[in-house]
Every structure is written in structure tokens, then in C-alpha cells.
Amino acid sequence: MRKWIAFLMTAMMMIAAVSCAPASESSSQAEESSAAQESSAAEESQVEEDSAAAENSAAENEGASEFTTATEGVLTMATNAEFPPYEYYEGDTVTGIDVEIAQAIAVKLGLTLQVEDMEFDSVISAVQGGKADIGMAGMTVTEERLEEVNFTESYATGVQVIIVTEDSDITSADDLFAEGANHTIGVQLATTGDLYTTEDIEAAGLGTVDRYNKGADAVMALKNGKVDCVVIDNEPAKAFVEANEGLKILETEYVTEDYAIAVSKDNEALHTAVDAALQELIADGTVQSIIDKYITAE
Ligand code: ARG
């Protein structure tokens, strides 16, 4: 609960800080409010040896050391393509901010990008087990995940928001924590929205958390009256609310978080190479221009 209050205060400070700034500006404030949280949910840690890792020489890349990837010449990205505008299907191709940034990183490293779509729940174990080289899924840096994988520099900021129906009696985050509150909250399984609400609402006896494999399914449950609200990242929230009538996003934001790329702790050379490539792409404005393509300031 204490942590919750800290979140709310951070969120309120963020709102005060960015309320008169265009939306895209808040994306560049990663350093301002790092909200990496510990969580209580145990993550399945399924480490598989992948001896098929191939040697790659990136000697021609300035400053890059030797690294290996799961498949020689290929940068395999584990993601969950249910998260517009970061990753989603356009026809049968996965596209979005994360895919374009990963593509630019692959080019810098002399690799071909391959995207593997899976449950969000499986992204970290795919990276840990060496099946995927990077995990990129609008993934928030948290204390618990830092024990399982390495993260690069943050490339974007996310905010957990609350979606309700237009006629909802939930008007702010406070309503979810009020004494005697008993709401059912929809989340995507194993996301930070799940971790926070599980700890701060369900464990505190203030409500129930319903976990869905896809954010869109949680939003469907809200439309069908099965849950009272959905806690999810702001950009997919906007996309889901646009695609569904009768829903709105509450003004009170929840937790501000940093998105980064996960790399196996067993592959420090790849971590260094990916991080260096990402930092160059941040420094030369490529990352911001990719973000701006998908997220327009209101
Ligand atoms: N930022 C949240 C987290 O890291 C949600 C990410 C969900 N991403 C996705 N591709 N479904 O837990």
C-alpha cells in the first residue's frame, strides 16, 4: 500500500509536469521517473541450453566486440504482437515501434531481423534460454526482471492507465484503493499492470484481478461487463479505446515506467553490442523519429 501511494504521488507529479506538454514529449522523460518495481508474482524460469548458438564476428563494426546469436547472421526478437503501436499485426506481418527499432539495430550489427511472436509470459524465458537474442515487447524494466535478464538503456516511457466504460462509477485510481472497494480488474497476464494490481489490490483484499492472455481480451471483458476496469499501458490503451465504443481512459495515471530491450545475462557481448547500437540510434534521432511515426502528439 505504501508503494501504491508512492506510485500515485509519482503519477501526480508526472501529470503536473507534463500536462501542458504534447504527448510525445513525455516519451523522452524516461530518466525523470524511473518506476522499476519489485513484484510478488513468481516468473517461470525455464532455462534451456542452446548450444546451437553461432559465432558472429562484428569486427567491422566500430567498437563492437564479438558476439553470438541464436542463429548465425540473424537477430531473433521475442515479442508479443498484441501491443499496438509497439508491436501488432498488419495482415500477417508484425510491425510497430519495437520492430522498427529492432530492425535498425539489426542493420547496425550486420544481422537480419527475425520476429518471433509468443505469449508475453514467454518472452523473458525465450531470452534466458537463448532461443531469442532480444526480448522487445514494450517491456518495462523491473527489479524482478533485472534478476532474470539484462536490459539496455531505456528507449521509451510507458504509463499504466485505467480504462473504464463511459458510465463507470470508477473516476480515479483512488477509487480502486478506497476502503471497502471491491472491483474486478482486467489485465494482461504477467505484465506490470498484473504485477501492480495483484500486489496492491488483490493481496490487499481490495478486489480481484482477472488475467487475460491478450490486452484486447481484457478490454473485451470490460465491454461485456465481466471486469470493472482494465489496467494497461497508455499507448495500447489509446488504440483499444479508439477501436471500441463506450470506453474511456481515466485522467489519473498510475505508474510511469521505462521500456528497454532484454538480453540474456549469459551473452554479455551481445548485450553490449545491442546497447551500443540502440544508444547510437537514440543519439542520432532515429528512435524518436520512429516513435513519432506511430505516436502523434495531440
Ligand atoms: N509494459 C508492460 C510490461 O512490461 C506491458 C508490456 C506488454 N507488452 C506486450 N507486447 N504485450 O509488463
Give a short overview.
By secondary structure, the chain is of the alpha/beta class.
Summarize the structure in words:
Helix content is 36%, strand content 24%. It has helices spanning 2-18, 23-26, 97-109, 120-128, 143-148, 174-177, 192-202, 215-223, 234-243, 268-283, 286-294, and strands at 54-56, 67-69, 74-79, 88-90, 93-95, 112-117, 134-135, 150-165, 183-188, 207-212, 229-233, 247-249, 255-263. Strand 9 (183-188), helix 7 and strand 10 form a beta-alpha-beta unit. Helix 3 packs across helix 10 (268-283) and helix 3 packs antiparallel against helix 11. It is elongated and about 55 Å long. The protein starts with a helix and ends with a helix. The chain binds arginine. Arginine binds next to loops.
Radius of gyration: 19 Å
Low-confidence stretches: 1-64
Ligand identities: arginine
| CATH superfamily descriptor of the largest domain | Periplasmic binding protein-like II
Number of domains: 3
Number of DSSP helical runs = 11
Distance between the termini: 34 Å
Number of strands: 13
CATH topology label of the largest domain: D-Maltodextrin-Binding Protein, domain 2
Percent of residues in helices comes to 25-40%
Topology diagram in text:
Layout: H1 2-18, H2 23-26, E1 54-56, E2 67-69, E3 74-79, E4 88-90, E5 93-95, H3 97-109, E6 112-117, H4 120-128, E7 134-135, H5 143-148, E8 150-165, H6 174-177, E9 183-188, H7 192-202, E10 207-212, H8 215-223, E11 229-233, H9 234-243, E12 247-249, E13 255-263, H10 268-283, H11 286-294
Parallel strand pairs: 3-6, 3-7, 9-10, 9-11
Antiparallel strand pairs: 1-2, 4-5, 7-13, 8-11, 8-12, 8-13
Helix pairs in contact: 3-10, 3-11
Bound molecules: arginine.
Arginine binds next to loops.
